[in-house]
Amino acid sequence: MDDTAAAEIGEDNTLLLLDDDEPFLRRLARAMEKRGFAPVEAGTVAEGRTIAATRPPAYAVVDLRLEDGNGLDVVEMLREKRPDCRIVVLTGYGAIATAVAAVKIGATDYMSKPADANDITNALLATSEEKPPPPENPMSADRVRWEHIQRVFELCDRNVSETARRLNMHRRTLQRILAKRSPR
């Protein structure tokens, strides 16, 4: 890690990572550790609230939807316990309404999954006067669409008919999309 990144992070490099996707959480923790942060992992809202109450971190990356509740509850608690905490909210359910709600209660930034560790770091370290730089390798529109379809498919317990109904598309069209490889 270079000295400029360490200087930007500051002396308190504690980072709460709250996500119920364990493989993603582990990868992100390793990547953020390499960037100079001291990550603490949590997989539930309850764990996140406990960490926020007992040892509020300087930085946080919080998933919006968790199995036991809403990540915004943890964001609110972090704001109460540590007003200077820089918080990025991550979600696979990107919507303007949730982005506005997250920022209103104190999130520094709001990003859609899958998010790159560099993009998350840039968002955490951006000052309030400057915007973080745009992502180096943003997902193509086709990839975003594919990711959304895959997520809805998984949430519908891999039921093609139910997924097609919720996405308002023909079942055969959905089957063709699911049979193809993911776009770049």
Automatic annotation (TrEMBL):
It comes from the Bacteria. The keyword Kinase does not apply. PROSITE patterns: RESPONSE_REGULATORY. Residues 14-128 form the Response regulatory domain. The modification 4-aspartylphosphate is found at D63. One of its GO terms (molecular function) is sequence-specific DNA binding. Keywords: Activator, DNA-binding, Phosphoprotein, Transcription, Transcription regulation, Two-component regulatory system. Gene3D superfamilies: 3.40.50.2300, Homeodomain-like (1.10.10.60). One of its GO terms (biological process) is phosphorelay signal transduction system. CDD domains: REC_RegA-like. Member of the two-component regulatory system RegB/RegA. Involved in transactivating anaerobic expression of the photosynthetic apparatus. It is a transcriptional regulator that is responsible for activating expression of the puf, puh, and puc operons in response to a decrease in oxygen tension. This is Photosynthetic apparatus regulatory protein RegA. The lineage of its organism: Bacteria, Pseudomonadati, Pseudomonadota, Alphaproteobacteria, Rhodobacterales.
